């Protein structure tokens, strides 16, 4: 059965969230309803609902008598987000390695193949597809934890990952061969059913990415 088309509200939510994550809507900027109405072809009521949803997810702040603003960024916030990502992702990957079947292994290998091809392109100096690179990065990390069999855990991880991604895209950090080697380590450990090694590579990957991003802020 085909999926129903997205509603105006859900489409507007995803578009504004994407523009916040990728820096089109800058941290701390005021979100004026009249401007958003023109930009996203949405009604004021839809925009208010959307901005309140984004506020509940932490991407927007609502100030009484002043309106809505893109949530500002800080090094302290990034450190907390990175810690939460490690906490959630290492638990999820341990469960996923224990539960994953052959189909799961195939999905992980396929996701890594796409990411690896994009990383090689980035290492060559071609950074024209950075959004595709980060999408493949997300798909690989998601594939590793998808077999955790906990929708609540996956949902929480997705929200934290989006916040972490926002910081990466604001300073556009790509660590080249080091990050690629960490991804390869996670892949090999997952296929070997070695959760401790997979988690070690994961923590190294996130910690190194955190340092790299903090230095660029």
Automatic annotation (TrEMBL):
UniProt GO MF annotations: DNA binding; DNA-binding transcription factor activity
SMART domains: FCD, HTH_GNTR
Domain spans labelled HTH gntR-type: 6-73
Pfam families attached to this UniProt entry: FCD, GntR
Keyword terms, alphabetized: DNA-binding, Transcription, Transcription regulation
Protein name, as recorded: HTH-type transcriptional repressor RspR
């Amino acid at each position: 059965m085909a999926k129903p088309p997205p509603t105006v509200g859900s489409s507007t939510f995803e578009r504004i969230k994407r523009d916040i994550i990728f820096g089109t809507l800058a941290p701390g900027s005021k979100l004026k309803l009249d401007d958003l109405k023109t930009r996203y072809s949405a009604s004021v009521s839809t925009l208010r609902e959307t901005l309140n949803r984004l506020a509940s997810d932490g991407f927007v702040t609502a100030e009484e008598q002043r309106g809505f603003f893109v949530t500002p960024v800080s090094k302290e916030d990034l450190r907390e987000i990175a810690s939460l990502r490690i906490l959630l992702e290492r638990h999820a990957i341990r469960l996923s390695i224990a539960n994953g079947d052959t189909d799961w292994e195939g999905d992980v290998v396929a996701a890594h193949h796409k990411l690896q091809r994009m990383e090689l392109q980035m290492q060559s100096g071609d950074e024209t597809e950075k959004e595709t690179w980060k999408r493949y990065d997300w798909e690989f990390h998601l594939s590793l934890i998808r077999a955790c069999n906990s929708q609540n855990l996956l949902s929480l991880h997705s929200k934290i990952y989006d916040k972490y991604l926002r910081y990466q895209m604001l300073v556009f950090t790509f660590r080249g061969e080091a990050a690629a080697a960490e991804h390869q380590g996670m892949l090999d450990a997952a296929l070997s059913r070695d959760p401790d090694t997979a988690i070690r590579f994961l923590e190294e990957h996130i910690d190194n990415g955190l340092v790299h991003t903090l230095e660029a802020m």
